[in-house]
């Protein structure tokens, strides 16, 4: 990771100084990608930091681990408390990115990872701003297909899965685009390299289902709830590639990217070529919620201070 974490890292239940947090080069996860992780945001606002949907992220970490029989030795509650303690220990009072990671340790070259294999869990945090540019993304459909449940299940947020996202990102940046949208093995829209995809047609909102090789995104689920609460119809169904070109609006959702509009796909302008009204209203509501501005959604936030 390019970013230096904050001074302390939570490492197997202890706070360890950043410079002392080491792993052996034989670590199984380094060789085989045997790690599961989360990306979480904390938002600095009103002299506090609000961690967004902390419990849901830690629950997903455990579900991802379960798919690969990777043992997480800590409960969801312990991991949530550790995260809050980590931010306090590091005196973090601004917007942060939080990265919990459970990885297989010294397991030799043995591919038979079982629930008895040695594992470690770390949580790192660092100050964080925008991930993708905010004023409308130029996307391309990747020539790479999204990994499939028939190979490495996309429902697990597993380290190895991101090789697929990296190939797609390299390709799109090389070709001058901001982000890639991947199709699944059947040719339907799956997701972007690190975000779920939504499209808007005639005021209705559509997003691929989990059967289309999409991650069970927590921002996705939040955006669906927000949109439904605002009175929009949201449908989860397969989306063929050409429907992207026909959309009135397209937006992406993800912890790092937040809610961001796609204003062109493969050079086809989407709608007016600017962020559309439906995307805008959902994005603005989301931004209010994550910074503690909406009473009804305070249950999604964990205050640190
Ligand atoms: C491949 C992929 N899809 C979707 C998402 C969005 O998930 P979430 O909203 O939980 O961050 C992410 C980011 O975590 C991702 O890496």
Structural features:
305 residues, alpha+beta, D-amino Acid Aminotransferase, Chain A, domain 1, D-amino Acid Aminotransferase, Chain A, domain 2, 9-stranded mixed β-sheet, 30% strand, globular, binds pyridoxal-5'-phosphate
Describe the protein in words.
Helix 4 (162-174) links the parallel strand 8 and strand 9. With 305 residues, this protein is α+β, with helices and mostly antiparallel strands. It is globular and about 50 Å long. The longest helix is centred in the N-terminal third of the chain and has 14 residues, at 54-67. The chain has helices spanning 28-32, 54-67, 76-89, 162-174, 218-229, 241-246, 277-290, and strands at 8-11, 14-17, 35-37, 40-45, 48-52, 96-104, 119-127, 137-145, 179-183, 189-192, 196-201, 204-207, 234-236, 249-254, 258-265, 268-269, 301-303. Helix 2 crosses helix 3 (76-89). The protein is 26% helix and 30% strand. It contains seven helices and 17 strands. It folds into two domains: 8-127, Aminotransferase class 4, branched-chain amino acid transferase, N-terminal domain (D-amino Acid Aminotransferase, Chain A, domain 1, 2-Layer Sandwich), CATH 3.30.470; 137-290, Alpha-Beta Barrel (D-amino Acid Aminotransferase, Chain A, domain 2). The strands form two sheets. Strands 8, 9, 10, 11, 12, 13, 14, 15 and 16 form a nine-stranded mixed sheet that branches. Strands 1, 2, 3, 4, 5, 6, 7 and 17 form an eight-stranded antiparallel sheet that branches. Pyridoxal-5'-phosphate (PLP) binds at residues 39, 165, 191, 194-196, 215, 217-220, 253-255. Pyridoxal-5'-phosphate (PLP) binds next to helix 5 and strand 14.
